[in-house]
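In this section we turn from sequence analysis to structure. A common task in structural bioinformatics is to predict how a protein folds when a small molecule is present, because the ligand can shape the pocket around it. The inputs are simple: the amino acid sequence and a SMILES string for the ligand, here flavin-adenine dinucleotide. Study the lines below before reading on.
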Amino acid sequence: MKFPISEATPITYPGPVPTEADVVVIGAGVIGVCTALFLAQDGHKVALLEKGRIACEQSSRNWGWIRQQGRDPDELPITAEANRLWRELATQTNIDIGLVQGGVTYLAETTEEMETYANWLPHAKTHGVDSRLLSDAEIAQVFPGISRRFAGALHTPSDMRAEPWVTVPALAGIAARAGVAIVENCAVRCLDREAGRVSGVVTEAGVIKTTQVVLAAGAWSSLFLRNEGVSLPQLSVRATVAATHPLAHLSQGAAAAENVAFRPRSDGGYSLAAGGFHELFVGPDAFRALPKFLTQLKQDPFGTRFLPKAPKGFPDAWGTKRKWTGDAQSPFEDMRVLNPLPNKKKLTDLCRNFAALFPEMGDVTLQTAWAGMIDTMPDVVPVMDRVDALPGLTIGTGFSGHGFGIGPGAGKVLAGLVTGADVAHDLTRFRLSRFSDGSPMDIGPSV
Ligand SMILES: Cc1cc2nc3c(=O)[nH]c(=O)nc-3n(C[C@H](O)[C@H](O)[C@H](O)COP(=O)(O)OP(=O)(O)OC[C@H]3O[C@@H](n4cnc5c(N)ncnc54)[C@H](O)[C@@H]3O)c2cc1C
C-alpha cells in the first residue's frame, strides 16, 4: 500500500481562485481547515489555499492521537474544547473518521519517569482531565499479553484517536459545504500590502484581495514569514511511522514505551513509531534558531539525531530560496508535498520492539511506512497570535508534534483572533513576541 495522500492524489478542489475574500487561510492541514470551517460557519467569506492536497503533510502523517495527557497546562483548556468539537464534527462528516475513545498510556521504565508523571497530574486535576497512574498489574489489564514489567504508567481513559488521512479531508468536506472556497494545488507566494497592512495574497493563480490572512503553513511557516520580514524560530524534524498489516486486537488504546509507540488503526493494523526519536536536517535556519533551542537541547541532549543537510527543496535545505517576489515561482510550488523518506533502520527496530512487547502477536510485518516533518518551536508550544507589525496577519503554527488532537480547538481560537471574538482562553503563552521580548524559553511541565 502506498501512502494515501501524495501529489498523485486527484485534485478534489480545483478552484477557481476567488478574486476577493473576507479571510484567506494559507495551508489546508488540520489547523487551516478547522480555522476556515469555523470562520465560514460564522458567516465569513473564506478562501482556503493549499499548495499540494488537503492534509498532504503533517495532518495525514501523524499518529492520530487526540490526547490531553501530558500537555502543557495552557493547552489543556483548548484541548477540552477540541474534544467537544471532535465529537460534534464526527457527526457532520460523510464518512467514519474512526473517532474512538480508547485512552492513551505512557509506559514508564523508571521510578524517575513515574515521578515526572506524578508531577504533571495536578495540572490534569485542575483542568478536569481523568489522568491517573497505573501500577504494573493495572498495565497488564489495559494491555493483556504485554510481555514485560514496567515501573508503572500514566494513563488517560478519556483520550481519543482518529484516522488522520481520512479525518482532515472529511473536515475539509464540512468546510466546503459551509461555503469555504478551497483551492488545492495553489501556493500562496507572498502577501500584498497597502499602507503597512495586509491587502491581499499573491497566489500562483492570481491575486486575492483580502484584509485578513491566517498563516497555517506548518513546516513552511517560518520560510514564508521570513520573506515577509517576520522572524519565527521554527525548525522541522523528521519523524518516521510504520503501519503494520492487520494483527490481533490488543486494546482500543494508544501507548508509548521507550522504544515503540503504538496505536490501533480502524483497518486492524497498528501505527508504530519511536516516541522520543526525531531527526533534524541542519540548514541555515537551524543555525539562526540555535540560541532559542538551547534550553530544549540541554534538557534532552540525545533526543535529536542531526543530519548534515536536508533533501533539495525542503524548507531549510541549503539551496532553498529565502527571498522572492510574487511574480516568480516560489519554494512552495517547487515542493507541493513535503514527503521525507522514512528512516529504514527505525522501521526494522519498530517491528522487532513491538513483536517483543506482544509476543503472542506473531510476526509483525509492514504494509507501508512514511515520515513527516514536524514543525517545532523552542518551547514546544505553538504560536497563535496576530502579528502586531503587520496588521491583518494571524499566525497558527508550530504545534510541535501535537497539533492534530488540539486542531479543532486551535481552529476556533484562530477564527476568534481574526474576527475579534472573545476566544475565552488565555493565549499569553502562545504569543509571537515571546521570541523577541527577552523571555527565556520556558519548556513548561508537559511530559
Ligand atoms: C509523524 C508525526 C506524528 C504525529 N503525531 C501526532 C499525534 O499523534 N497527535 C497530535 O496531536 N499531533 C501529532 N503530530 C503533529 C500534527 O500532525 C501536527 O501538529 C498538525 O498536523 C499540524 O497541522 P498544521 O495544519 O499546522 O500543519 P500541516 O498539516 O503540515 O499543514 C500545513 C499545510 O500548509 C501547506 N502550505 C505550506 N505553505 C503553503 C503556501 N505557501 N501556500 C499554500 N499552502 C501551503 C502545506 O502543503 C500543508 O499541507 C504528528 C506529526 C507527525 C509528522
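The mean pLDDT is 96. As an exercise, try to locate the residues that line the flavin-adenine dinucleotide site and compare them with your own expectations.
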